[in-house]
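Annotators were shown the component list below and the corresponding predicted structure, then asked to write short factual statements about the assembly.
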Amino acid sequence: MKLDSMYQDVILDHYKHPHGRGLRDGDAEVHHVNPTCGDEITLRVRYDGSRIADVSYEGQGCSISQASASVLNDLLVGKDLAEAQKIQGTFLELMQSKGQVEPDDAMEEVLEDAVAFAGVSKYPARVKCALLSWMAWKDATAQALGESPRKETA
Amino acid sequence: MTQTREAHGLLDTEAIRKDFPVLDRLVHDDRKLVYLDNAATSQTPRQVLDAITEYYERHNANVHRGVHVLAEEATALYEGARDKIASFINAPSRDEVIFTKNASESLNLVANMLGWADEPYRVDSDTEIVITEMEHHSNIVPWQLLAQRTGAKLKWFGLTDEGRLDLSNIDEVITEKTKIVSFVLISNILGTHNPVEEIVRRAQEVGALVMIDASQAAPHMPLDVQALQADFVAFTGHKMLGPTGIGVLWGRQELLEDLPPFLGGGEMIETVSMNSSTYAPAPHKFEAGTPPISEAVGLGAAVDYLSAIGMDKVLAHEKAITSYAVERLLQVPDLRIIGPATAEERGAAISFTLGDIHPHDVGQVLDEQGIAVRVGHHCARPVCLRYGIPATTRASFYLYSTPAEVDALVDGLEHVRDFFG
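Structure shown to annotators:
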């Protein structure tokens, strides 16, 4: 059944038992919403030089948006900014693939649990859900590192 | 069987559904489509599709200009559609029916008329605008814009826990300063059917104009603009079996004569010189540019279709379906109806939450079973805030909806609970 390709067990696990949820101290905080469906996330980043010391978040939304934030926390905390940006770029590429990209080993190595979102990319209405926390992280990082003015929503 | 159906007030949906080609569609390979998103848009019967096709195949021309056969036929069809709609809403005059592109444009048009109007209609910094907390964004944002631009104060009626308007403070909300009260007749998210008379009476007491958003009412019940006693009524074509791109603003004739135009251009003028222009009488004064001609013709055919069935019968059918749906939905564990949890004084849109399962996930799993519902905040985010929920799932019915589709929804929701349980 096609639905199982979207709702992989790994996604449902992250949804039911999110990793790193809750707001902790950060260098910058952003609030992003998905206006079409009402998903919301408040996300903070804390940097230790160029290393991501923490990504904390609180939000409400569908399983896809919440699981994605949990996976993001798993993948990015402890990484160096350049590596995190590579992961973010790879995830973006996968999510924008309209189901055309079959994750290979190299992609799986970069994305780990996040490859489970490959099935979501077939559902245009849900891609935004999966990307919500990642766009919030990108925005928060830009603010924390002083690269752009504060932005409330995306 | 027929007697049972009629005793319940149900229409002969088997016959009606034959007019709607899309209702036969299979989705996700082999699932029968169960279309329960009628509050977002209704499906289109063959009669409307044929009217639009025939217009383009035989009569297409620009209207109100040219003396050739096609131009005259197109004009007659376009203006004929206006007659049909005037009659459908019991307008005293056909000249009170303005074609727009949708209800949002109708609402924006009035907000702009009032912003540019002279006294006694002018909205300015000493005046107030009244709406309600259950409005669609299209009946909030135009008034916020008007308030911001003029300095007027925007006020609103709150909601009760049961999903009704809280009119307990009506005398404080609608005051001598109120210039316009604009509210929804039937809420697109809560389904609530609002009491018109009390609001109109208070507005008339203080000399305020009344605008009614009838987008969720015109498709589903007999609409009589004279009985409503409002000054303006807005609705849209695509929710009432018509095509997209056509909406209606009805306004009282003397107001349409007094109020200034908003969009300028061809069609809306009388004479134009380089220094100034004079305007055509209503409705043309408010229809600048080439209008949505085929769309109006389509809406005219939709109105014919609805009238042939009878709007009282459409209403009775939907009451029966809604009553059954409320009863069945309340049996689903963890399901909470957001809005009136009865079939009384409500329309055929039912919003609900299902435990902690996010509506997006509910909608996705329903879709996989061929069931189309709307999820999200339904362009009425303040309602979600009011009830402390991020979003709802909404099932909305129409004249072709069947009890079996209600059953399919309830079964589908059980599957959702299993999936996320």
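Statements collected:
1. The mean pLDDT of chain B is 96.
2. The first strand of chain B starts at residue 26 and ends at 27.
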